[in-house]
Amino acid sequence: MHHEPPRSEWRQRFADEARSPRPDLATLCLLLGTEADPGLDDDGIDAAQIELDRLAGMLPYGLSGPHMWARALGDLLGGREGFHGTPVDYRRLESSLLHEVLRRRRGLPILLSVVWTEVARRAGGQVYGVALPGHFVVGFGEPDALVLADPFHAGRLLSAEDTELLVTGATGSPPSPSMLRPADPLAVVSRVLNNIRAWAAPRPERSEVALWALDLLLLLPSHPARLRYERAQLLVQRGAFTEGAAEMDAYAEVVSAVEPTTADLVRGRARAARAMLN
User: Fold this and answer.
1) At what angle do helices 7-18 and 207-219 cross, to 10 degrees?
2) Is 118 helix (H, G, I), strand (E, B) or coil?
3) Residues 136 and 113 sit within 8 Å (Cβ to Cβ)
4) How many of the other CB atoms lie within 10 Å of CB of 145?
5) What is the C-alpha to C-alpha distance for residues 209 and 90, in angstroms, rounded to an integer?
6) Which DSSP category does 49 fall into?
């Protein structure tokens, strides 16, 4: 009989990994998947890691230089293995879950980028995620001679003009050098969880998804304090009035010194939430 760890144990493992000196991106993404998929256990997590190892083992030996790495990964992952995304993938929660992306070969740009960077890392490549506004891609080589590829479009290489169009389309201004920096693993996980919250927001019947995504964001070593307040609002929305009101009061306590007006507003909302019990 396979013992399934309780949710609190998965969360503890997630928190421990997030706070370790060198957080492992694949592990964090897979532990995140246990919240969405009760069927995902240690065997499933191992299988996903083994699949990443297998893919890394299929890369040719002796790759050197950013262009060579970009082409080899594009041929393998975008070509032979068929990893890519479609507009429909934005409407599916599985597109944000690494174990499902490995199974379906489909996902959001950020999850496909995780597959690329994790496969390359296992094969010794200098490849990293690049969090362009509105579209996550992967970068190869040094910042001054960066080669960018788009895993969502099966690894299409991006010219400087392509990158400028992408960024200008999303922000109205051209890319700044800071946008092209390697994305830190915790920043990637945070963006994945925020994508999940954005997926759940227009689906009130899936508010439990928004709640666990917030819970995991709060386990990351650094997070905006206002997430506590968002969690409290979500609890009230789900009918947990007492718990939500208590969280609102706790948040008001935290901000009262710097933002007394906000604190008063939040305390008022806490009273209103408690009144809903009568």
Assistant:
1) 40
2) helix
3) yes
4) 10
5) 16
6) H
Do residues 137 and 158 lie in contact, with contact meaning Cβ atoms separated by under 8 Å? yes
For the stretch 69-128, pLDDT in tens is 999 999 999 999 999 999 999 999 999 999 999 999 999 999 999 999 999 999 999 899
CA distances from 235 to 6, 105, 206, 211, 270 (A): 21, 35, 13, 8, 11
Phi and psi angles of residue 54, each rounded to the nearest 5 degrees, phi first: -60, -45
Q: Which residues of 182-211 are buried (b: 16+ CB within 10 A; e: fewer)?
A: bbebbebbbbbbebbbebbeeeeeeeebbb
| Token representation of residue 11 | 């969360």
Q: Convert 198-261 into a string of H (helix), E (strand) and C (coil).
A: HHHCCCHHHHHHHHHHHHHHHHCCCCCCHHHHHHHHHHHHCCCHHHHHHHHHHHHHHHCCCCHH
Indicate if the alpha-carbon torsion angle 53, 56, 58, 62 is positive or negative: negative
Give the pair of three-digit tokens for residue 264: 């008063």
- The DSSP call for residue 175 is P
Question: Over the stretch 219-239, which tens digit does the pLDDT of each residue have?
Answer: 999 778 888 888 888 888 888
Closest-CA residue to 232 (of 224, 223, 222, 242): 242
pLDDT bin (cut points 50, 70, 90) of residue 56 is very high
Alpha-carbon distances of 219 from 129, 213, 224, rounded to whole Å: 22, 10, 11
